[in-house]
Design goal:
The protein folds into two domains: 143 residues, Porin (Beta Barrel), CATH 2.40.160.20; 244 residues, Ferritin. 44% of the residues lie in helices and 29% in strands. The longest helix has 45 residues. The N and C termini lie far apart (74 Å). The structure holds fe (ii) ion (FE2) (2 copies). One fe (ii) ion binds next to α2, α3 and α5.
Length: 435
């Protein structure tokens, strides 16, 4: 019995770890529903001039983002309660929907949100009894995650006299942006499927000897998690390159381009193994991401394939893999662990080549795809900068140790992204002009 339970404990622990790790997840917008709340001051006029103090709660179901549009859109219910002149209350419930209209990297700087619903004002006096009506409104939120709300609302009476609409202007504070905070991941070449970007699951295969001994528990766990995420992202690049090679071949691309996509697939296999080995040694568990199949071919025709491949080359190759190379180079400068240094040196070299392959695929699609590709790529290049990878948030832990193990401080990761974006946009515009 005791030997049985001795054997069972690690097995159960491994199962538990595996269960925790094994759900493939969408790498961007982990949450598809987001919540937001606001406090406001307002002035109402029409029936009676009234000073209001209000609260507002809203839930929002976020829509899938589209290419070239880094803004989130969403729709959901809202509820409001406002105290008018400390003598009456106005309540509203309904549906709100809108979008981010300006985004500066991962900070939402402006959103616009419309409201439609039902409203009820409680009784002021005998002349102004309680009245229900139609609620319409528009709110713009500036800044995030604590934002400034500016709003205009109207209540159009549906019951009893007087039929005088009430208008309200106000401002307030909003906690959490209405359309969520962005965590878009562009870490190397992501695996894009019909359902969005997918991060392969990971499994724990059994205990391993943890090393090195000097790390405290929390830092070790954070580092293991970060390297496991990298292993999963690298593993997602394998089927992504397989699909790229297949789609290039189907579009009639030169054999050299198809061959380079297959060679890159081989690089991603090595990156996956290296990152998983580092994660395993830190975790004290043999951890491995699970290989997923390539997504099914889904382009309507060759033209659609060229547009999609051009946009993916830009986002995932020129930007994503370019930034991955820039981050690896910077991480290498601060890393001291031998295994980590070897992995980072290899990743920095290979990802720079993958970015270069991205540029070649882009040039091929521009040459073959004509105006449609030029316009799509032009829109992506001249639009607002995409957010830097959100899942590369700084790893918690003692900074000297996290850097020794190849994790960059957030500011450095962001500046690597900035640098990549600026250079890629300049080179991209040149390429477009030449095309
Ligand atoms: Fe890679
Ligand atoms: Fe890559």
């Amino acid at each position: 019995m005791s030997s049985c339970s001795r054997a069972l404990t690690p097995a159960l622990a491994a199962l538990g770890v595996a269960a925790l790790l094994s759900l493939p997840r969408e790498a961007h917008a982990d949450e598809n529903v987001t919540f937001s709340g606001g406090l406001s001051m307002s002035l109402s006029f029409g029936q009676k001039v009234a000073f209001g103090l209000g609260v507002d709660l809203r839930a929002t179901a976020l829509f899938e983002e589209s290419w070239g549009s880094p803004a989130s859109k969403g729709l959901g219910p809202f509820a409001q309660a406002t105290l008018l002149n400390f003598e009456a209350g106005r309540f509203a419930i309904g549906v709100h929907g809108g979008s981010e209209i300006v985004r500066n990297y991962d900070d939402v700087v402006c959103t616009i949100d419309g409201e439609l619903g039902w409203t009820y004002r409680s009784r002021y006096s005998d002349e102004l009894p309680g009245q229900h009506g139609l609620h319409v409104g528009v709110v713009s939120t500036l800044f995030s995650p604590v934002g400034l709300d500016l709003f205009a609302r109207a209540a159009i009476p549906l019951s009893s006299e007087p039929f005088v609409p009430e208008g309200t202007l106000g401002m307030g504070l909003r906690f959490l942006p209405p359309f969520g905070e962005q965590t878009r991941a562009i870490d190397g070449r992501p695996l894009r499927t019909a359902e969005g970007v997918v991060l392969p699951p990971a499994i724990a295969l059994g205990p391993a000897a943890p090393r090195p001994a000097r790390l405290d528990r929390a830092t070790r766990a954070a580092l293991a998690g970060a390297w496991l995420d990298s292993a999963r992202a690298e593993c997602g690049s394998i089927p992504a390159f397989l699909a790229l090679a297949r789609d290039l071949a189907a579009a009639g691309a030169p054999a050299s381009l198809v061959g380079r996509a297959l060679a890159a697939l081989g690089d991603e296999v090595r990156h996956t193994a290296r990152c998983a080995a580092i994660a395993s040694s830190l975790a004290g568990w043999r951890l491995s991401p699970a290989l997923l199949p390539p997504p099914a071919a889904r382009d309507a025709d060759r033209r659609a394939a060229l547009v999609r491949m051009a946009l993916e080359a830009w986002h995932d190759g020129c930007l994503g893999e370019g930034a991955a190379a820039a981050r690896a180079r910077r991480s290498l400068a601060g890393a001291s662990d031998a295994g980590v240094r070897a992995a980072l040196a290899e990743i920095a070299r290979d990802e720079a080549q993958h970015a270069e392959l991205g540029w070649r695929v882009l040039a091929y699609c521009l040459a073959e795809g004509g105006r449609e590709v030029r316009e799509a790529v032009g829109d992506a290049m001249t639009g607002p900068a995409p957010a830097p990878p959100g899942d590369l948030a700084e790893v918690d832990g003692e900074p000297r140790e996290t850097q020794a193990f190849g994790q960059l401080p957030r500011a450095q990761a962001d500046s690597a992204w900035d640098e990549t974006w600026t250079a890629a946009r300049r080179d991209g515009e040149r390429l477009l002009t030449a095309a």
